[in-house]
From TrEMBL:
Xref: PANTHER family: ALIPHATIC SULFONATES-BINDING PROTEIN-RELATED, TAURINE-BINDING PERIPLASMIC PROTEIN
Pfam hit, one: NMT1_2
Provenance organism: Salibacterium salarium
Family: Belongs to the bacterial solute-binding protein SsuA/TauA family.
Signal peptide coordinates: 1-20
Protein name: ABC transporter substrate-binding protein
UniProt keyword list: Signal
Amino acid sequence: MKKLVLSALCSVVLLMGALAGCNAFQKEENTTVELAEVTRSIFYAPLYVAMEQGFFEEENLNIELTTTWGGDKTMTSLLSDGADVALVGAETSIYVNAQEPAEPIINFAMLTQTDGTFLMAKEETDSFSWEDLEGTTFLGQRKGGMPQMTGEYVLKQNDIDPAADLNLIQNIDFANIANAYASGTGEYVQLFEPQATLFEQEGLGQIVASFGEESGALPYTVFMAKEGFINGDEDTALRFTRAIYKAQQWIYDASPEDIASTISPYFDDTPEEVIAESAVRYRDQESYAQTPVLPEEAWDNLQDIMEEAGELPEPSDYDEFVNTELAEKVMED
């Protein structure tokens, strides 16, 4: 009788263990995350690395990526539950949270930590000086956007008054800026990669300065979500952040050729050597964040630039709208 009882108890223990194992397995079942990216850019290379190197797959995450082409559209998608997570400039969360939405937008993983634009001069020079811009036509970015705010901030830091010292053009759509410059508009232009490298190779200009190096650390592009997603599905958010951290580590160790071959499926019309050169340019100036943690100093720098541009609706509290716990946990693990 005693043996029968012990046998029954063992069976119950084994069954409970099996059920627990099943529950653990179910928790790690493949989870779909709808991700909206504000644009398609080599500036976001670590995201594509995470997808192509299987880092999301290792976390049992299925990423459904949509390019929404614009900060307003990206935030609309997030607020209307068209996306679980958005990859967009941190300034957009400040704009939205100032309007007191039903759920605040929380920044939880930083992807890029500098501005991603470069200053291109139409005339080649061996000794560029910011004073060279005085009296010229400068083809800048859309007013109110982070590239424009950072660009004007850098000009002022170098004693150039954007309103008085040059002819600043800001009424051209983002998608048409490069074409306008190539067609002859402006002596200087502010461009992202790979367009800047392509123009250099085509003899249309020379990269003479980096706005990323000049402006300092910024939460330029951040993964963000509604508070309900972070609090209600913390395990998914944690696994997502871990995949991004793996990609950030990978991209700083990989060769230019490996980076280019990995992310080339996302840039069909761009030669791999241009992808490699562009990605390394960003990596060399540490535009790619090396961890997902968004530091308070970078958050403050962002708000200083927005305030300087007259675009800060109100101060945004770091402790309220930035979550570093997920990033810190994956780094500890």
